[in-house]
Design a protein that fits this description.
nucleotide-binding, GMP Synthetase, Chain A, domain 3, 24% strand, metal ion binding, 30 strands, seven-stranded mixed beta sheet, acetate-CoA ligase activity, single chain, eight-stranded mixed beta sheet, acetylation, 21 helices, alpha/beta, binds ligand 6R9
């Protein structure tokens, strides 16, 4: 591996930044030594409350509990919109860039207010009230943001489901949360292709008895089937209601949203976030991590279906009164220069994306980058998976022309907002390291015995103290929340990641320590893909592991055993990929499927994934001990039949 140099904070970096190293260290010290005072001050600075809190924070990890600003009341939509209107009514809140490079529009804070209030009124008229769950299954269009904020305004809990998920996956999520309404579109548009959202939604809703209303945005005008009792055109309904809508005052700990994410076992979990703490940390990290300055155009390329879209397209930027760019398309359409063309077109100052996108664009060649000016760019960011130093260096040197610091932000759906991240102007950067903790975050590394590692070392990454945007529960199953995050290491929040800490106290995420895959920055449980595969009538058993993939970070390698008499054909391979797309979505399609005569199992019947992982990674010389296997000869057959890459 090439040794990559540290990028020191330069004078140019610190010219106007919110933090230099001394300020970061002073604020961090206060945040952990006097957290109640620190966070009360931050809440005063970042949020408007209609009623002040009685207590700042409370935590009991043994019960999986955290609570912030109890006794206070506020409304998230008022914080993201109304309070900016006196000074920012005409300022752009959202820039929407369509899939087609000729489509874009600017939405001012006043327009955002009008649209959100209208949709909130429509929801209320259809009987949706505080505490009800509303599913949002949308393409990347401004109405997705309106929908989230309209829910927040009336106190409904939104559950955004990524538009790439299948009808089956959508159905499960709607039913888990017993949503009463769905907001969707006729079709989405990505990379010049149509995505049949209404068709998918109709299929899902056949088995979702709780949904009484489906509000449909007309995006492409495609012919769609219609259920008069249930379906409502967005443009028709919103044209008949007022642009005024009284906001529901919510308790600080009232739920704001549910977002499903994959774990090592079982079905996806509905991660529950609440109102005040979530918004505070989303807002505060947005300002400090991205060093947001008045007038900056900021662009996060995530989809609103993931937590990054929630915190860093919608809530963080809008709580700060910023201008947030929302892109409907993909980075490679019409060609691999699209992102940089967009940066020039809209004068983007801050650009936030995933390592998988960086690697894909790096592979396309520098000329797609250098044909643009990118002079507006001041800061670059990454999220979603560890970034390999080569990709970091390319991002830094070619995209940012060495001028822009890179913030490598480690966090999770469950953490709600940034947890480990550099701050521009304060933190020297090491390519591949998410560096140091954000204010108030106290990470630790635990060894195999659950003891804290002191100084440099490696272990399981845990968090010791509550932070404002901490997961509050798994929707409908608090026990599962305790079991997943607070039981492995009692007294700590367990992230599921491994990490190393170096001599400077910098953290290096080494990847998941559980059976969770990270494919192109998308989290997926191996168990989910396995249960899709075994749906096929020819499949007896399936075991899925990850392997290193140049672009995606991890690829999906599936081992499958067949029912007696089933034939190994090309069609079968295709059908198996198809069933994953059908049950979960295209992101779950295995890259490699190996039909094996048997799976390596212990005598107690447990599949030894370690061996399957080694074979998938071409590391057959270091398989380790196979003596506990019920039938060691299975391993030879698997090695023999492995699919070379
Ligand atoms: C925000 C988001 C969370 C998992 C997390 C970790 C990986 C995220 C990372 C990173 C290394 C980073 N991850 N950011 N690994 N460096 N900067 O991605 O949420 O979809 O819940 O995924 O992603 O493994 O545990 P989510």
């Amino acid at each position: 591996m090439i040794a990559h140099a540290i990028r020191k904070v330069s004078e140019a970096d610190t010219a106007n930044t919110h933090c230099d190293l001394a300020r970061y260290e002073a604020m961090y010290a206060k945040s952990v030594n006097e957290p109640e005072i620190f966070w009360a001050e931050q809440a005063e600075e970042f949020l408007n409350f209609s009623k002040k809190w009685d207590s700042v924070m409370r935590q009991d990890f043994s019960r999986g509990e955290a609570a912030w600003f109890e006794g206070a009341s506020l409304n998230v939509a008022e914080n993201c919109i109304d309070r900016h209107l006196p000074t920012r009514a005409d300022q752009t809140a959202l820039i929407w860039e369509g899939d087609n490079p000729e489509d874009s529009k600017h939405i001012s804070y006043q327009m955002l207010s009008d649209e959100v209030n209208k949709l909130a009124n429509v929801l209320r008229h259809r009987g949706v009230k505080k505490g009800d769950r509303v599913c949002i299954y949308m393409p990347m269009i401004p109405e997705a943001t309106y929908a989230m904020l309209a829910c927040a305004r009336i106190g409904a809990i939104h559950s955004v489901v990524f538009g790439g998920f299948s009808p089956e996956a959508l159905k499960d999520r709607i039913n888990d949360a017993t949503c009463s309404a769905l907001i969707t579109a006729d079709e989405g548009v990505r990379g010049g292709r149509q995505v049949p959202l209404k068709v998918n939604a109709d299929l899902a809703l056949e088995a979702c008895p709780s949904v009484h209303t489906s509000i449909v945005v007309k995006r492409t005008g495609a012919d769609v089937s219609w259920n008069d009792a249930r379906d409502v055109w967005y443009h028709e309904a919103t044209s008949q209601v007022s642009t005024e809508c009284v906001a529901e005052q919510m308790a600080a700990e009232d739920p704001l949203f549910i977002l499903y994410t994959s774990g090592s076992t079982g079905t996806p979990k509905g991660v529950l976030h609440t109102t005040a703490g979530y918004l505070l940390q989303a807002a505060m990290t947005f300002k400090y991590t991205f060093d947001y300055q008045e007038g900056d155009v900021y662009w996060c390329t995530a989809d609103v279906g993931w937590v990054t879209g929630h915190s860093y397209i919608v809530y963080g930027p809008l709580a700060n009164g910023a201008t947030s760019l929302m892109f409907e398309g993909v980075p490679t359409y019409p060609d691999a220069g699209r992102c940089w063309d967009i940066c020039d077109k809209h004068n983007v100052a801050i650009f936030y994306t995933a390592p998988t996108a960086i690697r894909a664009l790096m592979g396309a060649g520098d000329e797609y980058v250098t044909r643009s000016s990118r002079k507006s760019l001041r800061l670059l960011g990454t999220v979603g998976e560890p970034i390999n130093p080569e990709a970091w260096q390319w991002y830094h040197d070619v995209v940012g022309e060495t001028r822009c610091p890179i913030v490598d932000t480690w966090w999770q759906t469950e953490t709600g907002a940034h947890m480990l991240t550099p701050l521009p102007g304060a933190t020297d950067l090491k390519p591949g390291s998410a560096t140091r903790p954000f204010f108030g975050v106290v990470p630790a590394l635990l060894d195999g015995d659950g003891k804290e590692v002191e100084g440099p070392g490696e272990g399981s990454l845990v968090i010791k103290n509550t932070w404002p945007s901490q997961i509050r529960s798994v929707y409908g199953d608090h026990k599962r929340c305790i079991d997943t995050y607070y039981t492995t290491y009692p007294g700590y929040y367990f992230a599921g990641d491994g990490a190393r800490r170096d001599e400077d106290g910098y953290y290096w995420i080494t990847g998941r320590v559980d059976d969770v895959l990270n494919v192109s920055g998308h989290r997926m449980g191996t168990a989910e893909v396995e249960s899709a595969l075994v749906e096929h009538t020819s499949v007896n058993e399936a075991a899925v592991v990850g392997y290193p993939h140049d672009i995606k970070g991890q690829g999906i390698y599936a081992y499958v055993t067949l029912m007696a008499g089933a034939e190994v054909t090309d069609e079968l391979q295709q059908e198996l990929r198809q069933i994953c797309t059908q049950e979960i979505g295209a992101i779950a399609k295995p890259d490699i499927i190996q039909i094996a005569p048997g799976l390596p199992k212990t005598r107690s019947g447990k599949i030894m994934r370690r061996i399957l992982r080694k074979v998938a990674c071409n590391e057959i010389d270091t398989l380790g001990d196979t003596s506990t296997l019920a039938d060691p000869s299975v391993v030879d057959a698997i090695i023999e039949g492995r699919v070379n890459r």
